[in-house]
Amino acid sequence: MNQPQNTENQAAQTVDEHRRNFIGTSAALAGLTIAPGVMVYGIAHSKPEQEAVTNKVRWGMLIDSSKCADGCTDCVSACFTENGVSLPSTPPKETDSQWIRKVELKDMRTGREQSLPVMCQHCEEPPCVDVCPTGASFKRADGIVLVDRHICIGCRYCMMACPYKARSFVHEELTDQSPDVPRGKGCVESCTMCVHRVDRGEKPACVEACTKAGHEAILFGDLNDPNSEIAKRIASKATVQLRADLALNPGVRYEGF
Amino acid sequence: MWKWTVGIIAVLCLSIAYATSSSAPSVGPKIVIDKSRAGDRCVEDEDFMRRNHMKLLMHQRDETMHKGIRTEKYSLKNCISCHASTKDDRVIGSDEHFCQGCHTYASVKLDCWECHANKARPKAATATLPAATESVAGEKK
């Protein structure tokens, strides 16, 4: 546990420099766009159903690990219930689908423990999309990374490419899927950021469950809208992206490390 | 002799015509459409839907998956909300079920339901409607 953390710390340090430069340039760019009053469009959080999604919106999450309660798995159960994924069997099988998992971290020097949920990070430059041989793995205009099961051939190359281990393969035949979330044997799947709910103007199931449990550790919103709570928080607080050294610019960010 | 031949041919033609007309309803899939659930008409004409439903579904599938367009009219969920059997709310399961009946008859593989839910969510309004009136669709015209 100690060893990987050390290397991660080193990586994070080198990355910090890049990030500082990046933040500098992006802040300057943001200034340019805001100054002439261009940001007049209001980003509707629920679009009309006949309209296609656009890249004016980029959905993202900010997870505060200091608020995430140790031992609480409400986000995991809410996700699995919403998407019709069966809860991990006991004892857990290696073939269980995992759309979201709770990860426990412990700093071996200080003994500080924390836990946080990890799911598909919805990268801006998703490696799963890069490697997909059929085009089944794709990023929607609003930043949500999905698998088109109509095209997926189940080669699992994306699972190997993903640095977050976010994807699972469905090994067995399924029945009684949720009408909103088609799933089936032979395809790769992962967190969809509850795309069916987002399109209706709702928040993802994990976010809702976390709020309901009173932790409010997950903040969901539009990263492109400077007035959104998430954009304000990431603009004012220190947040990190997991494996930022890979320069994938995930839509999911973490704070409280 | 000539008159006899014409007579025999006429009788043969008539009997064949009679036999065909009486056996016509047994040709084609036996699909039960529950009018209380489905209403009077489909989203497009019946003939059009028989020939083109797969094209509409294919188009809608890409629009929904890639662009997030979730209009109800041609969605698979809308199909099954009307066409599911009143017995078990499903569109597959036996040759009397809407999708399976026709696809078995036409010998066309049906793979939508390996991933998509084949069971309609029970309609709240269905309970208040009068008893099911059933009709047989799919006779050869």
Roughly how much helix do the residues of chain B carry, as a percent range?
40-55%
CATH architecture of chain A: 2-Layer Sandwich
Strand order of the largest sheet of chain A: 8-1-9
CATH class category label of chain A: Alpha Beta
User: What overall form of chain A do the CA principal axes indicate?
Assistant: globular
Structural class of chain B: mainly alpha
The CATH topology label of chain A is Alpha-Beta Plaits
The helix/strand order of chain B is: HEHHHHE
Q: Roughly how many Å is the radius of gyration of chain B?
A: 20 Å
Number of domain modules of chain B: 1
Helix content of chain A: 25-40%
- Low-confidence spans of chain A: pLDDT under 50, at least 5 residues? 1-7, 24-44
Number of strands of chain A: 9
Total DSSP helices of chain A: 7
Number of helical regions of chain B: 5
Low-confidence stretches of chain B: 124-141
Read across the widest sheet of chain B, the strand sequence of neighbours is 1-2
For the terminal residues of chain B, how far apart are their CA atoms? 38 Å
What's the order of the H and E elements of chain A?
HEHEEHEEHEEHHEHE
- Report the sheet with the most strands of chain A, covering strand number, pairing sense and barrel closure: 3 strands, mixed
Which pair has the most extensive contact? Answer: A-B, 29 and 17 residues
What labels would you give this structure?
heterodimer, A: 257 residues, alpha+beta, three-stranded mixed β-sheet, 7 helices, 28% helix, disordered N terminus, B: 141 residues, mainly alpha, two-stranded antiparallel ribbon
Structural notes for this entry:
The complex is a heterodimer of chains A (257) and B (141). By secondary structure, chain A is an alpha+beta fold. Chain A has one domain (41-255): Alpha-Beta Plaits (2-Layer Sandwich), CATH 3.30.70. Helix content of chain A is 28%, strand content 15%. Chain A is built from seven helices and nine strands; from the N terminus they run H-E-H-E-E-H-E-E-H-E-E-H-H-E-H-E. Chain A has helices spanning 2-34, 74-83, 127-131, 157-161, 195-198, 205-212, 229-236, and strands at 59-64, 100-106, 113-119, 137-139, 145-147, 168-169, 188-189, 218-222, 252-255. In chain A, strand 2 (100-106) and strand 3 form a beta hairpin. In chain A, helix 2 crosses helix 6. The two termini of chain A are 16 Å apart. The model of chain A is unreliable at 1-7 and 24-44 (pLDDT under 50). Chain B is mainly alpha-helical and 141 residues long. In chain B, 46% of the residues lie in helices and 6% in strands. Chain B has a two-stranded antiparallel sheet. The interface between A and B is medium-sized, with 29 and 17 residues.
